[in-house]
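To close the section, here is one more complete example, presented without commentary so you can practise reading it yourself. The ligand is DI6.
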Amino acid sequence: MRCDTLWQNANLMTLDDASGGLGVVRDGMIAATEGRIVYAGPANTAPAFIPAERIDCGGRWISPGLIDCHTHLVYAGNRAGEFEQRLQGVSYADIARAGGGIVSTVRATRAADNAGLIAASLPRLDAMLAEGVTTIEIKSGYGLSLPDERKQLRVAAELGRLRKVEVVPTFLGAHAVPPGHEAQAYINDVSAVMIPAIAAEGLAEAVDIFCENIAFSPAQAQQVFEAARAHGLAIKIHAEQLSNQHGAELAARHGALSADHIEHLDDAGIAAMRTAGTVAVLLPGAFYFTRETVLPPIQKLRDAGVPLALATDSNPGTSPLTSPLLTMNMGATLFRLTVDECIAGFTREAARALGRSDRLGRLVAGMDCDLAIWDIEAPADLVYRIGFNPLHARIWRGHAA
Ligand code: DI6
Ligand code: FE
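Output:
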């Protein structure tokens, strides 16, 4: 059988395992044609391929390309000074009152033109790609006006044209109340004007909201979800990060793809997520950086069979993190996730959190051929090391990238 490319002499983490494991295949091979996997499995039971290109992987490991399903990658400005202030004991609230925090990133992002935003964001994207990322979700939320949110989403799409990576854009207009506005009036604008426009222009697939006592209420989240649904957009939520607002439960009842953070999630929230198939997106970078102490209810989520994804939450305020591998290590050390859960959280389950399970996140015939080839002895090496990058090659849609 002819194929474009054949990767042989490799160990595979197919992630194709009904019991939720890594689906390991030793001495495996992958064949691809026109950017799609046509075979992934044991070498000794593979069809006889006649490849245009044959690649000897020298016994290395191949996983699906990594998927970062929650980032705020596109922004301008720098909050390192704020970090120093916080180290000296100044509180987050004091910084915000003095015009810092999220509002300072909004100011810098509004002031940047497209080229400036691209220049600021590309190094962060490149850091992700260097660790095997082939799909990345990028949220808006630092514009907080229709033209500025549009600009962020257009830049996100442009990043996907500048690099070999799939960008999944999410509209997070309801991230914070813009300076000089009143919360409910702004939510009315988000629901009645911004969501319809963003949907009509095809600038986002999903709508997200920061539901928290310092941000928007569950009632406001409901209003935003109804607008999202009416315009054919999927739903995500930043929920239960600092307190239990029952946002995850509300989002699940609206069929949310994912509820993210969820440190303060309760049993009713878990039950609603299980019923709806809503993915729990765990963000240990924000937990670490803000020195949070309340852990997400991992064991209860596991027991309930709620899918667990893992993501960087790359953002300038609470998770200035561009390393999926370090995020996996944090998932294991801080949240006690297993190695299998950490790797599945950045592949199969992340694809599910983006509504792309049919096409991404597993090494299965018919799926897009996005691969990460690793110089490791065992899958655990990806999670165990700190600050070491064993990526050997990144393949996007069947081609070295
Ligand atoms: N949750 C967070 O922790 C960040 N956004 C959000 O919804 C904070 C973002 C920032 O401080 O810039
Ligand atoms: Fe976030």
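Once you have examined the tokens, check your reading against these statements. The pocket of fe (iii) ion (ligand 2) is lined by residues 70, 72, 238, 313, 315 (CB under 6 Å). The mean pLDDT is 97.
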